[in-house]
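Aggregate trends can hide what the representation actually does to any particular protein. The sequence in question and its structure tokens are set out directly beneath this paragraph.
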Amino acid sequence: MFGVGPNDAVLHVCGGKVRDYPFRGLGKYDRTLAPGADVLPDANALIKNALTVIDVGSRVGILDYVWPHPGKNAVEVAVVAVGTGRNNRARWFTVFERIT
């Protein structure tokens, strides 16, 4: 989905506690933080801000309960529903590519 390898630089927004999840595959450059829901910005604003710091043609991914809108400077290249088990809310993992 990203078009990169595990050791390439990728801006993955809102990783939360991904390091605590029971799977492998994080690259050596992972910088995951867990600030808490009370300080996270709106997903639409977060994606729009993230897209301003990457080059045209680069991609940003976000895992959230909403399917954010990237604005006019990007397009979706992947939208994946992520199930987290019974009696849990599903999430969207969306990947956006900056076009302008």
Q: What stands out?
A: The helical segments are 43-51.
